[in-house]
Amino acid sequence: MAQGARSLPELVSELPQLFIALLRAEFNQLKTELIAKAKVAGIGIGLLLGAAIIGLLLIPVLITAAILAFCLIVPPWAAALIVAGILLIIIIVLVLLGIRFLKRIGSAAPKKTITSIKSDVDAVKGVGDYDY
Questions:
Q1: Is 107 inside any structural domain?
Q2: Which of 33, 39, 49, 79 could be joined to 70 by an S-S link, Cβ 3.0–4.6 Å?
Q3: 5 lies in some domain
Q4: CA of 31: how far to CAs of 21, 22, 35, 41, 53, in Å?
Q5: What does the angle CA 75 – CA 76 – CA 79 come to, to the nearest 5 degrees?
Q6: In a domain, 87, yes or no
Q7: pLDDT digit string (tens) for 22-75?
Q8: 1 part of a folded domain
């Protein structure tokens, strides 16, 4: 045997420790990568939230501008009613569209996943149709 060479039993006995060390290293790398991505995602979400808040503050300004624009044509009370009617129509359309989309979901249970898991369980039990 060459100098420094180890026997097969010695190498095989080291496999569990090497495998565990590899798993720990991979897990640490995964953790580091996910933490870095989470930080970037957090900053992005914070910026989007800030933009959304400013956007929400913009809505009353635009409604006021619409009322003032209609005031050039009709009395102020009528202008406010016209803008309120337009907003009410927008709300009704959005509610009806939202209800239509929610009805498409049907049951909240993930049917494909449940079916897949049941077939996996049947395969483990040796029951049902499955490929060898």
A1: yes
A2: 79
A3: no
A4: 15, 14, 6, 15, 32
A5: 90
A6: yes
A7: 889 898 898 999 899 999 999 999 999 999 999 999 999 999 999 999 999 999
A8: no
pLDDT band of 132, cuts 50, 70, 90: low
Q: What is the domain extent for residue 50?
A: 11-124
Q: How far apart are CA 11 and CA 1, in angstroms?
A: 14
Query: In this structure, how many other beta carbons lie within 10 angstroms of the beta carbon of residue 54?
Result: 9
Dihedral pair phi/psi, residue 109, rounded to 5°: -70, 135
Residue 30, both tokens:
């995964």
In tens, the pLDDT along 78-120 reads: 999 999 999 999 999 999 999 998 888 877 777 778 887 887 7
- Which element (helix H / strand E) includes 60? helix 8-71
Domain count, the chain: 1
